[in-house]
Amino acid sequence: MKQTRGMTLLELMTAVAVVAVLITLAVAGAQGRIGGQRENAATRELWSSALRARQLAISTNQPVRFVVENNVLQPDGRSYTVARWERLRCGDDLSNPDLWSLDACPSTTCLNKSCRQSPGCCSETGTDIVIPASMNATSIHALCFLPGSGRPAFNKMDCLRGSLGTPATIAAAAPTDSSIQFRFTSKRAKSVLMVEPLTGLSSVMDCDSLAATTSDAAYKDVRLAAACAVP
């Protein structure tokens, strides 16, 4: 009668090691896909929010700015870096929101505070956009869409208070094509939020897209390629 030989300890250990490697590779691949999806979602949400912020600045005649804040507690009980837009109140008497002039917009109380720090500064806020740990979106912080016109001012928490009637100052504060870049520590190429200086309309473009990398003039976006070339 033929005897059945079982696995030796060495064979068993080898099989377990192979299975462990396969599981590790599968988990790493899944985490990479999930991380990429989160980066994509955050990038698109920031772009959509920029369009919404511009629309509100025009329709409400109030400045709408972006803030990026760290360690903000979310409904899942964890803290994240988040971004959102804030529609700022105008006038120095926040109890009378209808009494203000162009020179008093936004309120001095709100110039260097977010509405999370001082909720009374805002008429409305957008939904928190969670920024993945692999993504840096700090350059959108203090992007402000000016009241009435929706024109953009870059890196201006004060939304150009006192200078809203000065066209030269507004023009000088507009972001360049490369001003707002979303960077990633993953293998993903950076993205650029390109905001038109006169209209405030924005588009988000990836620096590994054909429009940015091709040498074919028929498909190349010269502005995007130049923006992506900025370190």
Automatic annotation (TrEMBL):
Domain of life: Bacteria
Pfam families: N_methyl (PF07963)
SUPFAM superfamilies for the chain: Pili subunits
InterPro entries the record matches: N_methyl_site, Pilin-like
Annotated protein name in UniProt: Prepilin-type N-terminal cleavage/methylation domain-containing protein
Species assigned in the record: Corallococcus sicarius
